[in-house]
Automatic annotation (TrEMBL), chain A:
Protein name: PepSY domain-containing protein
Keywords: Membrane, Transmembrane, Transmembrane helix
Presence of the UniProt keyword Membrane in the record: yes
InterPro entries, A to Z: PepSY-ass_TM
Transmembrane segments: 33-55, 153-175, 203-236, 353-375, 395-416, 422-439, 451-470, 476-495
Pfam families xref list: PepSY_TM
Species annotation: Sphingomonas alpina
Upper taxonomic lineage: Bacteria, Pseudomonadati, Pseudomonadota, Alphaproteobacteria, Sphingomonadales
UniProtKB/TrEMBL annotation, chain B:
Species of the source: Sphingomonas alpina
Keyword vocabulary terms for this entry: Membrane, Transmembrane, Transmembrane helix
Membrane-spanning segments: 6-24, 36-58, 64-84, 115-142, 148-168, 175-195
Protein name, as recorded: Uncharacterized protein
Amino acid sequence: MTTRTERVAGKRQPIWPKVPADFVRAVLKGHSALGLAFAAAIYLVCLSGSIAVFAREFQRWEHPAAPRIEAAAPGAVQTAFTGAMAQAGNGVEHAYVTLPSPELPWLLITTEGKAGEHAWIADGQGRIAESGASPWTEFVTHLHINLHLPQTWGMFLVGLTGVALLSSLISGLLAHPRVFRDAFHLRLGGSRRLQEADLHNRLGVWALPFHVIVSLTGALLGLTTLIVGVLGLAVFQGDVNKVYALFLPPLPKDDPRPAPLPDLAAMLRQAAVRSPGATPAYILMQHPAEYGQATQVGLRQPNRLAGTDALTFDREGKLFHASYARDNNLGKDILGSIGSLHFGWFGGGVVRVVYGLLGLGLTYLAASGVTIWLARRRDKGRPAPGWERVWTSVVWGQPLAFAVAALGVVIAGAGAPLSLPLSLWGGATLLALAVSGFVEAKALSRACRAIGGATLVLVALGHVALRGGLAGDPVAVIVNVVLLLLGAGLVASALRGRMVRSAA
Amino acid sequence: MAESLTWLAAIPILIGAAAGGWALRRAWRLRIEERLPWMLGGWAILIATLLWPAWVLGAARGPFIAVALIPAGVLAVVTSGATVKAARADGNGRNNDQSLAPEPLERPSTAWRTILRWLLAGPIGMIAAMAVGVCYAVWVPGEPQTRLLISGLMVPVLWGGAMAWTLADSRILRATAMLAGVTLICFTAAILRGFA
């Protein structure tokens, strides 16, 4: 109980009832164990996610000379789709048209089938202008979504990482009874452990809503197959399709006989009448060259989080299923908003920038958790120099590995296969880990920062020299400036560390 | 149009977040008896900053834009109040600052306890969370889509909670009994009800 003397003296009292010290220490033990077990996975998923927030910007950066259009006329969409299907050849199973939006002002057609996945960018008249392959963007997004592992396992692992992150947030709050009491403490430059702990805790508390949103939505996205499977098993006697049928339009009867391509222009015109005020966002086709085809036109309603109307047409252009955002129940609204909330694609550029920064903050939380554990061991006279080197190579090796992958794509061009950035990233990651076996942690950190920073500068300069990065799309220029600044910052931090060491 | 409106709305949201954060920091620095008005004022500003975008940017979209921007505004205030200290370390790289932070519990463990603990945190915790989710989906009234989505959201939260608890609790058999019991009860209840 607070005494009068304490109140007069102005001593700070905790907001919460006194938490038993043993409970705090036990929860801290769990928090520490979980953080250590999942640290590398959380770090990698968070870092790639922070970059993937800017997937649209990187796509544009990979194609600085692509024709930019504000809107595509229905006739142009039909022309572009027909042209893309002609180039894709036979056996296309699915086709996807991305219609121009402020984030991606392109008419982009993607096909998927026996010949693999291909993409094309068309101009305002629907003429195919160039390949729409974006290996760097694809590398980053796939790394974030499934770690480039087989789809089901990779997504499960990322989902599990989301659960671990959520669990760390819960135990982190419980393990820090002073977390609100010290909510504005930020002491830099003194004790390494104190500095890292202050940053870790302040970021953890004040950005908690963001952390909860991205970890929860990420866990749900990653575990969808498992959760839907169990729900289907338990409530629909094992029929998973009944769960999906509650959310997705019915499929037309399978009929693989070759058929003329669907009339997208007519469907777009019909969709505009049925969803007034909405902006056509995408067209998704199942078996576009077969009699059993179905075409879904998605239209985005303004100022809504889950604001997509989805109209599905059969081969004759007859509407056979419609789902309007205004009629959504809570479940459909939640489903429609999960992806947007996870990637920050619901509030324009300003939200993406903030998501990128807060995502880096979350990445730092993962990194600093281990750093604090290592510093605590050192302070107690039980240093773990081997783990310090390994962790340094993980933390600072990743920016280097990402930069090397980007440089490879800049040199090879947008036609590069996905395996190029993937192998470069994998090689740089392994090299950094191997070097950690015999290079001291501080030197390793400086080397990774210096080389990674210099590589980023080369990426920006190489993009300007080889890909016309100063002409064409202004977003590509912005990306290059940011890469240049990031690279210069990393090099400067490495040099500063060296100068401080020399002065000492 | 929507993009420029969001940029325009972002400025007052960030200002509101910084103002709320500043008021809370002022409360935090004051003596206890002078604190209340600043604390209430700070939270009131933050709540208002969370709510008003609903009328301008959409009922759900507006508050979520605010949820994203408010941490940025408050963290700017936290950073502006950072204190810089001189680095201190002895020749061995050890730090001489005394920390009052609690240390993790040192508890003796055996291989089977460690294995059981991670089984509880991993697959057993997942099954228990699934059981609660399924039970919710079949018992709680409402649209089937809503019931399924809410139960789907519950699973990661419950699994994460179970993970945090089982890794912390020293009485591992208690955690085992609790998770097994929850699983049994919830799956039985779900089977009895079926899905309507």
